[in-house]
Design goal:
The structure holds 2 protein chains of 2 kinds. By secondary structure, chain A is an alpha+beta fold. Among the domains of chain A are: 142 residues, BirA Bifunctional Protein, domain 2 (2-Layer Sandwich), CATH 3.30.930.10; 59 residues. Chain A has 12 helices and 16 strands. In chain A, the strands form 3 sheets. A 9-stranded mixed sheet of chain A has the order 1-5-6-12-11-10-7-9-8. The longest helix of chain A has 20 residues. Chain A is elongated and about 90 Å long. Chain B has 8 helices and 11 strands. In chain B, 41% of the residues are buried. The chains are: A alpha+beta, B alpha/beta. Chains A and B meet through loops of A and strand 5 and helix 7 of B.
């Protein structure tokens, strides 16, 4: 019987997530830690950070410690019209941390659905993302957006190529004052400016946001993307998770790779998103593939930041014994004290910096209490 | 129970001005006005907890979620690119990021331009867009002295009134971007304290408008 208290939150999450993905018919994808560096060079922009740990293999090939899982999964799947491949994974990746500028091992869990996607599969993956968040925390939010809709609205605005790039950046920052400044600098009409600013101002439940955005749309591309997004939002609305899903167009990803829905998951108490995903058909086109693809990853190592370690004891009991004590007596005393919910450290002196609940001493076969700490 | 919003304020004159906006917007915290060396102040009735931090650290506190919101200069945001929301231009602490050089300066187009600055990322982005080859000399202060002593050809720095430049026989050669104080928010905090943060944002926006 395993004492639940010793299972760390990320370890518990892994088992629960595996079970969740298995229930929905996803099969585990286990891969090697290494991949040929070439794969990452060709798709550098897709990576969160373009710095990769490389080494030369015995046969002279330049290899990399995986900075990403998705590219390897795509590489290992094939196009088969009408079919879908559904896989989940739980792997470590190696990336440069922004703060320390050094490589970090990051534990990821996630899934990918690759093949002929339809509205159901897209909704299934988004809902599995919400359910994944629900498994790891009570207070969570999934922000969703649609890159196709955002791209179509930017295209319709009439902004220049540079202007669109800047508008995209300001949209991610919810920076409406500078988005307005870009529109003014390019002499955009008032209605076009307001339409773009609506992408920042409209944020909230799907029903509220969609009803505000709908009347602003004019081009065919905008309407098509909107309909696709609305179908997804309708499914979420009926799923029972509507309160935890927020439509927020500031969620974004590289437009070169992401084409449809994109999303990010947040937990209360964690400063950055713990889950990130979306539909990335354009990446497959770039790799000369016909399939569609959608997936997400959860950064499980972040869960340790939420663990409360403020009032923990290292050990329940410290049992002191004198050097001349009989080992058989010590053994039987420890066996009496230790069980799955109770830990005992046996020593002749109190270890420095060790936090313990109580201090006992074994003298002449008897145990006496020296200290109780609650 | 009201959720407390943690606010990182930049220590110094700008921070006091920023707090005055928060106060008139209805988020006062009387203890902050007492003369003492405390760094953290809260008013549970108004749901705010303020703390003073070094101006260049505000963005770090907000990005890491210790502060839900904060006020930071656009120069810091451009230089460090923190992953935060930029919710409002507070339109105070106005100045500009500029290229300055000695009065008789002519760009030596035939060779690499030596640029002294506290803001290497801003300088690099600016010259990359122009396709100009530069050598960045990262300094931590007294940037103006670099071209005078021949350490660099130009400097990239914040220019407020231009007095320091004039007194050192330097002049602005190019403006990179206007700078002012911005209200920033942690992305996660924005989700879980949304109503509270939007309420503060609205109050501050009204203050900014009323003082125009």
């Amino acid at each position: 019987m395993i004492n639940e208290a010793i299972i760390k939150s990320d370890e518990k999450a892994i088992f629960e997530l595996r079970e969740l993905y298995r229930q929905y018919g996803y099969s585990q994808f286990k891969m090697s830690r290494f991949e040929e560096y070439d794969l990452y060079v060709k798709n550098k922009d897709f990576l969160v950070s373009d710095e990769v740990i490389t080494f030369t293999d015995k046969n002279g090939r330049l290899m990399a410690l995986k900075p990403d899982v998705t590219l390897s999964i795509i590489k290992n799947t094939t196009d088969s019209p009408g079919k879908l491949q559904k896989v989940y994974y739980n792997e470590n990746v190696y990336r440069v941390s922004k703060g320390t500028h050094s490589f970090k091992e990051i534990m990821q869990a996630g899934l990918e659905c690759i093949g002929d996607l339809n509205d159901y599969e897209i909704a299934e993956v988004v809902l599995l993302a919400v359910k994944s968040l629900a498994l790891v925390s009570r207070n969570y939010v999934l922000d969703i957006s649609h890159m196709g809709l955002v791209a179509a609205m930017l295209e319709d605005s009439g902004l220049s190529y540079e202007g669109k790039g800047m508008a995209h950046t300001f949209l991610h920052q919810k920076n409406s004052h500078e988005l307005r400044a870009v529109c003014t600098a390019e002499n955009l009409p008032e209605d076009k400016t307001e339409k773009l600013c609506a992408l920042i101002d409209c944020c909230g439940s799907a029903s509220q946001v969609l009803s505000k955005i709908s009347p602003l749309l004019s081009s065919q591309k905008e309407k098509e993307a909107f309909e696709q997004f609305r179908t997804l939002c309708d499914i979420i609305e009926r799923s029972g998770f509507a309160n935890s899903v927020i439509v927020d167009f500031s969620v974004g990803n590289d437009m070169k790779y992401y084409s449809g829905v994109v999303f990010k998951g947040y937990l209360e108490g964690l400063p950055t998103s713990i889950l990130s995903g979306g539909q990335y058909d354009k990446l497959l086109r770039k790799m000369k593939r016909q399939s569609g693809a959608i997936g997400f990853a959860l950064y499980l190592d972040m869960l340790e930041q939420m663990e409360d370690s403020s009032n923990e004891y290292d050990v329940d009991t410290v049992l002191l014994y004198t050097k001349d004590a009989d080992p058989i007596t010590i053994t039987s005393a420890v066996d009496r004290l230790a069980n799955s919910a109770h830990s005992v450290r046996v020593c002749t002196q109190i270890p420095s910096q060790l936090r313990y609940r109580r201090l006992l001493k074994l003298t002449d076969g008897r145990i006496e209490t020296l200290e109780e700490n609650g | 129970m009201k959720k407390m919003v943690n606010v990182a304020l930049p220590k110094g004159r700008l921070g006091e001005k920023v707090y005055a906006y928060f106060k008139s917007a209805g988020f006062e915290c009387p203890s902050i006005e007492e003369t003492n060396r405390k760094l953290i102040f809260e008013n549970p009735q108004k749901g705010v907890r303020y703390f003073w931090v070094k101006p260049s650290d505000v963005a770090i506190y907000v990005e890491r979620g210790t502060a839900d919101i904060g006020v930071a200069g656009k120069d810091i945001l451009l230089e460090y690119q923190p992953d935060v929301y930029e919710l409002l231009d507070m339109e105070m602490g106005k100045c500009r990021m500029a290229v300055a050089a000695k009065k008789d300066f002519r760009d030596p187009k035939g060779r690499t331009l030596r640029v002294a600055t506290k803001f290497p990322n801003i300088a690099e982005t600016f010259y990359n867009e122009k396709g100009r080859d530069i050598d960045i000399i990262k300094l931590n202060g007294s940037i103006e002295i670099a071209p005078i002593l021949g350490l660099s050809d130009v400097i990239v720095d914040i220019v407020e009134t231009g007095t320091t430049l004039r007194e050192n026989d330097l002049e602005v050669y190019d403006t990179i971007v206007p700078i002012s104080a911005r209200l920033i928010a942690n992305k996660s905090g924005y989700k879980f304290k949304n109503a509270e943060i939007l309420n503060i944002r609205q109050g501050l926006e009204n203050e900014v408008r009323s003082r125009k």
